[in-house]
From TrEMBL:
Trimeric autotransporter adhesin YadA-like C-terminal membrane anchor domain mapped to chain residues: 333-392
Leader sequence residues: 1-25
Sorted UniProt keywords: Cell outer membrane, Membrane, Signal, Transmembrane, Transmembrane beta strand
Protein name per UniProt: Putative yadA-like protein
Length: 392
């Protein structure tokens, strides 16, 4: 966004500069060569350039006065149109307002990013808490599933006993119904006996007996019908209860199967987690062993480096002492005269080390001479040399 705004601003300034230059050239070309006319043209061009730059910086709106190039290529002041606003690179806002809007947008984006960061951190903390809660819920679920399995087994066992009792009740009801059928047979036999009484002349009040028998028969039939209706209703209720219990048993079995499947899945996941934990433990143990081995190696290397550092320091001292001794030996003189024996001494040094050398020499003749020298340093060994010189 910054790059686009900067690009548009540069384009706008270049356009303003080009328009100002064109106006200046046009003004100079249209005037004569006199000094006053030339000065007037420059002044007018500068004013036009200032107005154009102000227009670019501050912007403009529809119907406001603006400087524009007409079809003849000259600058003219006219009212801005909608096309002028739309064709402007900054849509008439101006460089200043565009920069201010851009700064406001940057501030808003910064606030948004900060807000998103806070939300993200809050979500991460929430997820961590949810993971911890899920671990607790998993442990609770294991306990609940174990309890549910035990309760389900107990409920299924109790329900089986209840169904057996219902079957026994149904069997007893069937026997009762069969017993009522025997009662019907008894009524039929009584009816036959009544029919026999109708054929006998021993009874004077036949109508009374007939009414009594009819009433008894009607009462018995109503009693039988009521008992049978109650039995049918009871059997229907028992069958409905059996169907409900069967449906409940099916639901319980399905739930038990679902719980078993979930337990199996959880067992698989727990097994996978246990295997992963065991693998991590093995890896941690291996890493611990490697770390201990690396620590031992580092300790050994540290000791070797310390020993090597001491050797380097000693070698540095020996080098300085050796160079100091060589400097001292180089300072010893050789005898010049034939038959003369000389004694000579010299001091030499190199950096912080110094050495003292003593020596002697003897010239046998003009062609042969010998010399020997010894140098000593503080804390170091002696350095010596012996030399023979042949001249001709």
């Amino acid at each position: 966004m910054k790059k686009n705004l900067l690009k548009q601003s540069v384009i706008a300034v270049l356009v303003g500069g080009a328009v100002s230059g064109s106006a200046l050239a046009q003004e100079i070309n249209t005037m004569d060569n006199s000094g006053a006319a030339f000065t007037k043209g420059i002044r007018n061009s500068i004013v036009a350039s200032i107005q154009g730059n102000s227009q670019i910086l501050n912007g403009f709106k529809k119907d406001e006065k603006i400087l524009a190039v007409n079809d003849s290529g000259n600058l003219e002041e006219r009212n801005a149109t909608e096309d002028d606003v739309n064709s402007d690179p900054l849509k008439g806002k101006g460089v200043v307002n565009s920069v201010l809007e851009n700064q406001a947008g940057i501030k808003a984006n910064a606030d948004t990013i900060e807000f998103l960061g806070e939300i993200t951190e809050s979500n991460i903390n929430s997820l961590k808490n949810r993971v911890a809660d899920n671990e607790v819920d998993i442990e609770d679920l294991k306990t609940n599933l174990t309890t549910l399995g035990e309760s389900t087994n107990t409920a299924v066992s109790n329900l089986g006993e209840y169904i057996q009792n219902v079957d026994q009740d149904v069997a007893e009801l069937k026997e009762t119904v069969l017993g009522n059928n025997g009662l019907l047979d008894t009524v039929d036999s009584h009816t036959d006996a009544i029919a026999d009484l109708q054929n006998r002349n021993d009874y004077r009040d036949l109508n009374t007996v007939r009414n009594l028998v009819n009433g008894t028969e009607t009462h018995l039939q109503e009693h039988i019908d009521n008992e049978f209706s109650d039995l049918v209703d009871a059997v229907g209720e028992i069958e409905g209860t059996v169907e409900k219990n069967t449906s409940r048993i099916t639901d319980i079995r399905n739930k038990q199967l679902l719980q078993n499947t979930r337990l199996s899945n959880h067992s698989d996941r727990i097994g996978a987690n246990e295997a992963a934990i065991a693998t991590n433990k093995d890896n941690i143990t291996a890493n611990k062993t490697d770390i201990e081995a690396n620590a031992a190696n580092i300790t050994a290397h540290t000791q070797r480096l310390d020993h090597l550092d001491n050797r380097v320091n000693n070698l540095n001292k020996d080098l300085k002492r050796g160079l100091a001794a060589q400097a001292a030996l180089n300072g010893l003189f050789q005898p010049y005269n034939v038959g003369k024996l000389n004694l000579t001494a010299a001091v030499g040094g190199y950096k912080s080390q110094t050495a003292v050398a003593v020596g002697t020499g003897y010239r046998y003749n003009e062609n042969i001479a010998t010399k020997a020298g010894v140098a000593f340093t503080r804390g170091g060994s002696a350095t010596y040399n012996v030399g023979v010189n042949f001249e001709w």
